[in-house]
Amino acid sequence: MSEFEPKIIAFVCNWCTYAGADLTGTSRIKYEPNVRIIKNTCTGRIDFMMILKAFARGADGVMVSGCHPNDCHYTSGNFHARRRWIVFKNLLEFLGFDTRRIYFSWVSAAEGAKWADVVNNFVNNIKKLGPFEDYKNLNPVRASLGVLNESARPQN
Amino acid sequence: MTERKIINKASLDELFNKLKSGGKRIIAPRDKKGKIIFEEISSLKDIASDYIQTTLSPKQTVFPRYEEILSYQFENRNIKIDKETKKPVPTVLFGVRPCDARSLSTLNAVFTWDYIDTSFTSKLENTTVISISCSKSDEYCFCTSVGGSPGDTAGSDILLTHLDNDNFLAEIITEKGKAILLSAPELFSDKDKSASGGKDAPAVEKEKYLAHVKPYFDVKELTNKLTKLFNSDIWEEQSLRCLGCGTCAFVCPACTCFDIQDETNGNYGERFMCWDSCAFALFTLHTSGHNPRETQAPRWRQRLIHKFLYQPERLSVYGCVGCGRCSRACPADMNLLEHLVEIMEAQ
Amino acid sequence: MNLQDLKTKAQKLLESNTVNVIIGYGQGSGGEVRPVFIRKPADIDKLVLNDKCVQNLAVYLTKHEIKKLGKPGIVAPLPVTRAIYQLMLEKQIADGEIVVLGIKNNGIITELTDNKSIRSFISDVPSELTSEEKARLSEIKSLSQQDKWRYWDEELSACIKCYACKSSCPLCYCSRCTIECNQPQWISVPSHLLGNMEWHIMRAMHLAGRCVNCGECARACPMGIPLNLLTQRLSEVIEKTFGTSESAEAFYPLSTFNVNDKEDFIR
After folding, report:
1. CA neighbor of C169 nearest in space, from C68, C83, C67
2. What are the pLDDT digits (tens) for B92-105?
3. C260 lies in a domain?
4. Residue B333 distance to chain C (closest CA, Å)
5. pTM of the entire structure?
6. Residue C88 lies in a domain
7. Interface chains of chain C (3 or more CB pairs under 8 Å)
């Protein structure tokens, strides 16, 4: 039986974490390939609904990452994001949502190594937690199919 | 054709078990933290008692809150469409009120009007309705104003009326009801053995055990009145406190409005039918941006005229059975009955 | 609660044409009360005032069918006044646009005509969770993660997406709510558990820091889901982490930030 390979979605800001992840690549640092990066202009733009929708679409874990406080390209976007995440994380915890499946981080454009570390750490944790059945099974009609069925992917 | 029998509580329990072991799913009112809803039960003990009316109606059994109509999936470059509808589970709707049983004919009229909705009809065909007459009513009930009554048999396959002690009068009304009788004839008797004198079932005075719901208006006169009130300013006055939520439409046993929603996820998707309400602001929003019912007043007018004028005119059924659920559940206390009485008195 | 005083004040407002409509509570069905909209001074006896008057009437202040009636005077027990103040902060009600007949728990009725007087009226009574409310939240917080999930799964499965919660909430006044966004359909229309979960999470987040804890959502819900627990929990978190809205500079905590906001989970 093949090992479970989690699907991780990462919402990152363009100016810091995206550039940082790029640096990881150009530095030829190997890290877990499970993460799919989605570029946003700023963490302040990231709606909490995006995180929920990523899980609904089949993500087993979601990362959200941006510039360090005081380094935001738009000055205050990440401050707004920080407040939002504090509230959102508490709400999810209150609902019994497994918040170990969401990582928030500040990764700057120079922190290529940090990005690799954070991703590796996260992927290993998610591998231990297993697929996110709790959430995928919420839609009763498709519970058995699972949200991202292997055969539903284009074969090319 | 209606046959009268007597059945006592112990035999009713046995009948329940027999139906269940015969593969039928039994849906009855259950108390869920103070709200009475319809749910599958495994024993008669689970049935809610001592209530006037349930919160949600039993229409979910034949017209679910949401249902998948079809699903599609891309396989290579081909699309596979799956329209297979699950075979309906043989169901017994137990413990509904006569008003709810009546509402099934309104649902049927809508879903077999210009297109036979087989999803609906197959569910209805596989449902047996065992109703219980009302021994109590409250100020929200008005079944007698819309052609019903606390002991009405329309729409029921068997109607039970609680007599003295643990006995019920069982009126076997349809072939489906007869089939149940014939499946366990030993559980039914012809005499009410507990009453002194042992009345014969046909001689039981059913009316003695029924609630008394006074008629508030003549529904035919109401229909007539509504034809003259389309442009009245009574609608604006009446709808001032309406909040425009969907509660009344969703708890109503006779409301049939639905939406079709596609939920897609890349290479596969599902098409759902789900409940909708004409009270929602966007119910009549056109793609052009124009909304013919822009304020709550025309939406409120639509609700009443649809139920009491358009439906009787075109489908020969009324869209209301007087169960009172809408008024009980309304967060703004709209109280349909009060508004109808006001309309009757309007100049 | 002084009903006669209320009627006198309300009648005077109508007679002097200071307001065109009094939004208040009147006799309802089943021994309850319901919203009434009184335009003629002679109808003033329709008003009632008792401990059944809990529906949050502020919801009517943002409805255009009611605005059409003219300048309103509104009977406002404390939660209603708080909702009105929040609406004023969010620029939904202009200063002097309405007259508030504020009623404190001691029953005294005060006429409030501007932002400043409303603010000082409600600031005497800090809006805190009652001990029962705190206990209820603690009860849920003390459950294991799995049990919490099971609890909310069961509660939210009952949701029929009637939107009575949104319709009765005075702070859900968006003329185009997220539920109406259909490219893409961000919030599901069918009432499956996934869609219900997303809807209630979204609504709680959009109300975070703005909710005045009137409990109307839970009262309006035909299925009896304790929706107010979600925003209560968020109010708790926001107060502890960011301070009360009195001390914040903006109109609600999520509309601003503090460079020194503390958290313990960002890597």
Report:
1. C83
2. 999 999 999 999 99
3. no
4. 6
5. 0.93
6. yes
7. A, B
